[in-house]
Amino acid sequence: MSVETQKETLGFQTEVKQLLHLMIHSLYSNKEIFLRELISNASDAVDKLRFEALSKPELLEGGAELKIRVSYDKDAKTVTLEDNGIGMSREEAVTHLGTIAKSGTADFMKNLSGDQKKDSHLIGQFGVGFYSAFIVADKVEVFSRRAGLDASEGVHWASKGEGEFEIATIDKADRGTRIVLHLKSGEDEFADGWRLRNIIKKYSDHIALPIELPKEHTAAEGEEKPAEEWETVNRASALWTRPRTEIKDEEYQEFYKHIGHDYENPLSWSHNKVEGKLEYSSLLYVPARAPFDLYQREAPKGLKLYVQRVFVMDQAESFLPLYLRFIKGVVDSNDLSLNVSREILQKDPIIDSMKSALTKRVLDMLEKLAKNEPEQYKSFWKNFGQVMKEGPAEDFANKEKIAGLLRFASTQGSDAEQVVSLAEYLARAKEGQDKIYYLTGEKYEAVKDSPHLEVFRKKGIEVLLLTDRIDEWLMSYLTEFDGKSFVDVARGDLDLGNLDSEEEKKEAEEVAKSKEGLVERIKASLGDAVSEVRVSHRLTDSPAILAIGEQDLGMQMRQILEASGQKVPDSKPIFEFNPAHPLIEKLDGEQSEERFGDLSHILFDQAALAAGDSLKDPAAYVRRLNKLLVELSV
């Protein structure tokens, strides 16, 4: 081996120490997965070299035949994995092998529960697969040199997984990375050609470059051992280029785990080849769980882009809209140039056509999942529902299609679970109902008992209950579905249309006319606190309620604007009262204007509290209420 220089011992990042502890104590239930992880990393290193060599062909250093080699030594009890990909410099080795260099590290560590079974699901989401080597090895050595650096700038990294690692500069003639695993006692089974071959076939058959093992020879006694020969043990062809009929579900699932760095099978996938005006292949996956950085809009996202089976870009964002950023997969085009850049991707009309087609394919895949596997779709919605709600604002062309995929809680349900589709809502709508009714609020507990729902309960009309912070914003873009417009039951002057009989409408008009004097008295009492006072058609049990003006912001939007530091427009609520309620009848008969004013303000504040709002002057409310209680007790 070459002479080592600049040798030093460094400590692992705290998160790595915790992770290694989990790994060494058999975090994975299936130890053989270590090889899948190391092969995936080697494949990524080769992909990166291919990409960089597009603009710098000298990085190939005359060796354009890219491959991965796996070998073993039974006597030394080692397994060695070598690739001729991009390799690492000394600084990169320290960064990539000494830290978890990925966004969301804090979230990752925070979510480790100490329950090995649960924690094992978290590993793949943070690009920490290299450390899986310590499941079977008590010492790991890495020899690497980055393509383009001098042979004297190789690096040797070594660790026993005990909190620190050694790093030194060495001579390394060839670019790429060689990893040597010194197997733990009892893990000798992995220093075996047949065992390694089976693991590679099982997990890495889809890798689109040759994975080679030494050829097995059975030499006769006294016969000289032949020179080492290598044979390819995987298909070494891009999975997405093969006919769908030839690909097993297990192969699709393993390929997803490779590109998605995930440890769970995907919920669904769609494999498609387009021929004609545009020619490209796509393989798209819906993950089973959300990554921790799903709501970090600047986090890396997008599909792996290949051009004529040559890797070009790892996170090509231009092929799917942002609300579908959770989709994993690959797209391989025959119509793009190999020197494609992010700037070109943003302007190319070919990309726009592909984006439109791929978006529809994803939405079709989700429709199929919702129809054929509702329980799986329920799981999908829990993980990605809020992201899907960004869709109608971002993707006008597919607004109706996205709306069909949305799920909501409703007054028909017994809990906050969002399981009702708009199609289901309309299917059980009342005869003559031409509107889709909904109510937004901060919490399910607050909206399910809201006074705004009283008339709907009385008439047996279902109302959707929207409690995600994004919901009010969503409904500003989602104006109708299947020809039926949406109506916020807390906004404007409620009109139930055909759901009210002519007799009910006539009676309401007469009552409103008879209470004009009371309306004027309350308006004078409440003054600038309200924009309007009127008789309510919404209430059956409560004395009063606050409605939102037709053009005013609701509570959710106001909170979003306030949280972002934006100025919130001034608006005043509409005070509606129930003329049949005993409190309102008592108020109507009150002779003392002072007492009338106190009662009006108490009813106004109670209506604000029922709507989930905070009181502007809680002390005044308490003072008035105490005064009233004293009078009643006298």
* CATH homologous superfamily title of the largest domain: Histidine kinase-like ATPase, C-terminal domain
State the total count of DSSP E strands. 22
Query: Major beta sheet, specifics?
Result: 9 strands, mixed
Instruction: Bin the strand percentage.
Output: 15-25%
The secondary structure category is alpha+beta
Number of helices: 22
CATH class type of the largest domain: Alpha Beta
* CATH fold call of the largest domain: Heat Shock Protein 90
Our Rg estimate from Cα atoms comes to 33 Å
Shape: elongated
Give the strand order, joined by hyphens, for the main sheet: 1-6-5-4-7-3-2-8-9
Helix content: 25-40%
Oligomeric state of shown chains? single chain
Level-2 CATH architecture of the largest domain: 2-Layer Sandwich
Binding site for ATP: 37, 41, 83, 88, 102-104, 125-130, 177, 342
Region (A): 1-342
Subcellular location: Cytoplasm
Domain Histidine kinase/HSP90-like ATPase: 30-187
At a glance:
One of its GO terms (cellular component) is cytoplasm. This protein is α+β, with helices and mostly antiparallel strands.
Helices and strands in order:
Layout: E1 5-11, H1 14-24, H2 33-55, E2 68-73, E3 78-83, H3 90-98, H4 105-111, H5 116-119, E4 137-145, E5 154-159, E6 164-170, E7 176-183, H6 193-203, E8 211-214, E9 230-232, H7 249-260, E10 268-274, E11 280-286, E12 303-307, E13 310-316, E14 328-333, H8 342-347, H9 349-372, H10 374-388, H11 391-394, H12 399-405, E15 409-410, H13 422-427, E16 435-440, H14 444-448, H15 454-459, E17 464-466, H16 471-477, E18 480-481, E19 484-488, H17 502-514, H18 516-526, E20 532-535, E21 544-547, H19 555-563, E22 574-577, H20 582-588, H21 593-610, H22 618-633
Parallel strand pairs: 2-8, 12-14, 16-17, 16-19, 20-22
Antiparallel strand pairs: 1-6, 2-3, 3-7, 4-5, 4-7, 5-6, 8-9, 10-11, 11-14, 12-13, 15-17, 18-19, 21-22
Helix pairs in contact: 9-10, 9-12, 21-22
Region (A): 1-342
Function: Molecular chaperone. Has ATPase activity.
Subcellular location: Cytoplasm
